[in-house]
Specification:
The chain is α/β, with parallel strands linked by helices. Among the domains are: 43-170, Glutaredoxin (3-Layer(aba) Sandwich), CATH 3.40.30.10; 176-303 and 346-365 and 422-433 and 460-484 and 503-560, Rossmann fold; 574-650. 43% of the residues lie in helices and 16% in strands. The protein is built from 18 helices and 21 strands. The strands form 6 sheets. It has a 7-stranded mixed beta sheet, sandwiched between helices. Strands 1, 2, 3, 4 and 5 form a 5-stranded mixed beta sheet that branches. Strand 4 and strand 5 (144-147) form a beta hairpin. The longest helix is centred in the C-terminal third of the chain and has 46 residues, at 652-697. The chain is extended.
Length: 698
C-alpha cells in the first residue's frame, strides 16, 4: 500500500514539477533562445546592439497591438510575436533603459484615442473593426517617434525601422544637411533674366527635407565644408572650381557623408534660356559631374549618354497626336528596377526619372572597350595591306619597320595588369536588360520618341542609375588632390597646401550617387494644387531622397543595419521537383501535339490525293486509304492517351516526396521515440534486476 501511495505521490510531484519548470522558464528565461537559421535572422546585428547599448537616458516604447481583434488573423498574430521578440531584444541589450509596454486599444476606449493621437493608424479588417499594430517611442525630453503600422510584407526591414526609431530618440538633435546646388531648388525671389520679382517656389522635396532636418546652404564656391555638417548634399555640381572640389574631396577623406545628384542632361537647368533664341537652350551644356573627384575614385558618369529602357519607358503623347508613345529617355521605374535589399529603396514601388545618366566603374568600361579596340587594330591592318602592296623598295621597308615599332610599343601596354578596384558600386536603381545608351543630343534638340523607339537595340545589360559606393576589402580611397590644397586665386595670400590635408580614408566611406537631377523636380513626382497649395504624390521620388538623407545622417551603426534575409522559407526541393516535372511535361506535350498535328495533316493529304476524287464522291475512300487512315487515327488516339498519362504523372515525384515526409512525421518518428523509450525501460529494468541480485547476495 505504501509503495502504491508513494508511486502516485511521485507521479503528482513530477507533473507539478514539469509545469512549474515550464512556467518558471517562460518568465525567467523568456529571452533565452538559440538562432539556428542560416542567416541568423532572429539575432540582432552588431549595429543594432551598439545602438541599444549607447543609450544614456530611458526610452519608453509603447506597442499598440489589437490582440483580441487579431485572433482570426494568424499571419498578423505570428508577426506580432516577432515584433515583441525584437523589442524585447532591444530592451535586453539596453540594460533596461528601453522600457517596452504593450497596450490593446479596444474600440471606443481611451487607449484607442491615445493611439490615434500619437499617430498610430488602425487598419480596418471588417466594418467597424480596426486593428492597431504600431509603435510609439518617447524619450526624457518629450521627443516622439512613431511607426504607424508594422507591415508584415516588410518584415525584412523590421530591425532597421526599430533601430532607426531608437537611434532618433537617443539622438534627438536635428541632423545638419549642407545643401550645395547650382539650381534654384530653394526658390527664387527674383527672376535672373528679367530682374523682376519671381514666384518660383522651392522644390517640394526641399520643403520636406526642411521639416525633418536642419538644412544649411553651402555656396558653390565654398573652400571648406563646415565640420558640423552631418551630410553634404550636392545637386547638379556643374563646373565647380578646384577649390570647391577639394573641399568635397576632403569632406569624404575625413569620413564625411556625401549624397550627389549628377546629370548628363538636366532638363531643369536654365542654361542658355533665351526667349529670342530657342536653339541656345538646346545646344547649351546642361551636364554635371564631380570631375577629377570621380576620376580619382574610378567612377564615371558616362559622358553624353542617357540610360534608355524599353520596359520602363514612360508613355507620352506628342502634340497633335492622340496616341501615347513610349519615350525611352524618361523612365517609370517599377520594383523590377529598384534594389529590394537596401533600406532606402526596399519599400519604394515607383520612381519617375527624366533623362537619367549611367554610372559605371572605369575598370568595367575598359573591359567593354578592349574587344572593339582589338577589332579596330585588325581592321586597320587589313586596310593597310593594299597600301603595302602598292609600295616598293625603301618605302615598303620603312613602313614594315614602323609597324614593328608600333607592335613593340603596344606589347608592354597590353601586358600591364588591371589595377585593383577600390570602389564597390552597388546599384540602388537600375534599368532592365532591355536597355540602351542614348546619345544625349538626340534628346536635347527636339526629341522624337518614335525615332528613338525605331532605333532601339537592347544592350542586354542592366545600367546603374543610382548607386551606393563603398570600399573594397583591404583598400583605402586616396585624395583626388595628392599635392594638397589647390593654389589660391590671384590676389589671395598663398597657404601651405598640405596644412590639414588628408591623403587617404581611414575607415569606410558613405557615399551615394544618383545620376539624375530632374527626378527631384516637382513635375516628375507631385501634383500641386494651385488653389490650396497641397501636394499629391504620384511617385516615390521624394520618399527616395528623404530616405537617402535619413539613412546617411544616421550613425555608422545604423548604416550597417540593412535588410535581413527572407523569413519565409519555401520548400525549395518541392519547387524544384515541380519545375522539373513541369518542364518534362511541357516538352513531351509539345512533342505529342506535333505528332498529332502531323498525323492529321497526313490524313488530309491522303484525302486530297485520291486519284478519283470528285465533288460527288469526295467522301468515298479506297480500301488502301481506309487502312492507312485507320492506322493514323490509332496513332492520334495513342498519342492523346500518352499525353493524358503524362498529365497524370506530373505530380508523381512530389506525391512520392509527400508520402515519405508523412511516413517520417507520422510513422518513423513515433517509432524512433517508442524504440528509445523501450531501450530506456529495458536499461532501467536491467539495472533494477542487477541491484536486486546484488542486494540478495549481500
Amino acid at each position: 500500500m505504501n509503495t502504491k501511495v508513494i508511486g502516485i505521490g511521485g507521479l503528482i510531484l513530477l507533473v507539478a514539477l514539469f509545469f512549474g519548470i515550464n512556467i518558471l522558464a517562460g518568465r525567467v528565461a523568456r529571452s533565452a533562445r538559440i538562432d539556428l537559421t542560416s542567416q541568423k535572422l532572429y539575432t540582432l546585428t552588431e549595429g543594432s546592439r551598439n545602438i541599444a547599448r549607447s543609450i544614456d537616458e530611458p526610452i519608453k516604447l509603447t506597442l499598440y497591438l489589437s490582440d483580441k481583434s487579431m485572433q482570426g488573423l494568424p499571419g498578423l498574430v505570428s508577426y506580432a510575436q516577432r515584433v515583441r521578440e525584437v523589442l524585447d531584444e532591444f530592451s535586453a541589450m539596453s540594460g533596461g533603459k528601453i522600457v517596452v509596454n504593450a497596450v490593446d486599444p479596444v474600440a471606443f476606449s481611451e487607449d484607442e484615442d491615445r493611439a490615434n493621437e500619437a499617430g498610430v493608424r488602425g487598419s480596418q479588417i471588417a466594418p467597424g473593426v480596426s486593428v492597431y499594430f504600431g509603435l510609439v517611442g518617447t524619450n526624457a525630453t518629450d521627443g516622439k517617434e512613431v511607426i504607424p503600422f508594422f507591415d508584415p510584407t516588410a518584415e525584412r526591414f523590421l530591425e532597421y525601422e526599430v533601430a532607426r526609431l531608437v537611434y532618433s530618440l537617443a539622438n534627438p538633435k536635428k541632423k545638419v544637411v549642407g545643401l550645395m546646388s547650382t539650381l534654384p531648388v530653394e526658390g527664387l525671389p527674383f527672376d535672373p533674366l528679367t530682374g523682376q520679382p519671381s514666384r518660383q517656389q522651392p522644390w517640394q522635396v526641399i520643403k520636406e527635407l526642411k521639416t525633418l532636418f536642419e538644412v544649411r546652404n553651402v555656396p558653390t564656391t565654398a573652400t571648406e565644408i563646415p565640420a558640423d555638417v552631418d551630410l553634404l548634399m550636392v545637386i547638379h555640381p556643374k563646373q565647380l572650381g578646384d577649390a570647391t572640389l577639394y573641399a568635397i574631396d576632403q569632406h569624404v577623406m575625413k569620413g564625411g557623408k556625401l549624397l550627389v545628384f549628377v546629370d548628363p542632361m538636366c532638363e531643369a537647368d536654365p542654361s542658355g534660356a533665351d526667349p529670342r533664341n530657342p536653339m541656345a537652350a538646346m545646344m547649351a551644356d546642361r551636364s554635371s559631374s564631380l570631375g577629377k573627384v570621380f576620376d580619382s575614385w574610378g567612377l564615371e558618369l558616362v559622358p553624353g549618354k542617357i540610360a534608355g529602357d524599353r520596359v520602363f519607358a514612360t508613355q507620352v503623347t506628342m502634340r497633335g497626336q492622340g496616341q501615347a508613345i513610349p519615350f525611352l529617355a524618361w523612365q517609370s521605374v517599377t520594383k523590377d528596377g529598384i534594389d529590394r535589399t537596401d533600406p532606402t529603396t526596399g519599400q519604394l514601388t515607383s520612381l519617375n526619372l527624366g533623362t537619367p545618366g549611367i554610372l559605371r566603374l572605369k575598370s568595367e568600361e575598359k573591359k567593354e572597350e578592349a574587344k572593339p579596340e582589338e577589332k579596330k587594330d585588325e581592321t586597320r591592318k587589313d586596310e593597310a595591306k593594299p597600301e603595302e602592296a602598292k609600295k616598293e623598295g625603301d618605302a615598303k621597308a620603312d613602313e614594315k619597320k614602323t609597324e614593328e615599332n608600333k607592335a613593340a610599343e603596344a606589347k608592354p601596354t597590353e601586358s600591364k595588369p588591371a589595377p585593383k578596384p577600390v570602389i564597390v558600386l552597388s546599384p540602388l536603381v537600375h534599368t532592365t536588360k532591355q536597355s540602351q545608351e542614348i546619345d544625349a543630343m538626340q534628346v536635347a534638340a527636339m526629341p522624337d520618341p518614335k525615332r528613338l523607339l525605331n532605333d532601339f537595340k537592347p544592350s542586354g545589360q542592366e545600367l546603374a542609375m543610382a548607386a551606393r559606393l563603398s570600399l573594397a576589402p583591404g583598400t583605402a580611397l586616396h585624395s583626388a588632390f595628392p599635392a594638397g590644397k589647390p593654389a589660391p586665386a590671384e590676389g589671395q595670400a598663398p597657404a601651405d597646401p598640405k596644412a590639414g590635408h588628408v591623403d587617404e580614408t581611414k575607415g569606410p566611406i558613405n557615399v551615394v550617387v544618383v545620376a539624375d537631377v530632374d527626378f527631384m523636380n516637382d513635375r516628375f513626382w507631385v501634383q500641386i494644387d494651385q488653389i490650396f497649395g497641397m501636394a499629391r504624390k504620384i511617385a516615390d521620388n521624394g520618399d527616395f531622397v528623404v530616405n537617402l538623407v535619413d539613412n546617411l545622417c544616421g550613425s555608422a551603426d545604423l548604416l550597417s543595419v540593412r535588410a535581413r534575409g527572407e523569413f519565409a522559407r519555401p520548400f525549395t526541393l518541392v519547387e524544384d521537383l515541380q519545375r522539373k516535372a513541369d518542364d518534362k511535361f511541357r516538352a513531351r506535350e509539345q512533342e505529342l501535339q506535333q505528332q498529332i498535328q502531323l498525323t492529321q495533316d497526313r490524313i488530309s493529304e491522303l484525302q486530297r490525293k485520291r486519284p478519283d476524287a470528285k465533288e460527288e464522291s469526295a467522301m468515298i475512300l479506297s480500301p488502301e486509304q481506309k487502312v492507312e487512315i485507320d492506322k493514323l487515327e490509332k496513332q492520334v488516339f495513342d498519342a492523346r492517351k500518352e499525353l493524358r498519362q503524362v498529365q497524370l504523372n506530373l505530380r508523381s515525384d512530389i506525391d512520392t516526396l509527400e508520402a515519405k515526409l508523412k511516413f517520417i512525421n507520422i510513422g518513423a518518428m513515433p517509432v524512433v521515440v517508442a524504440l528509445a523509450a523501450l531501450a530506456i525501460g529495458g536499461f532501467r529494468a536491467a539495472r533494477r534486476s542487477s541491484q536486486k541480485k546484488t542486494g540478495s547476495a549481500a
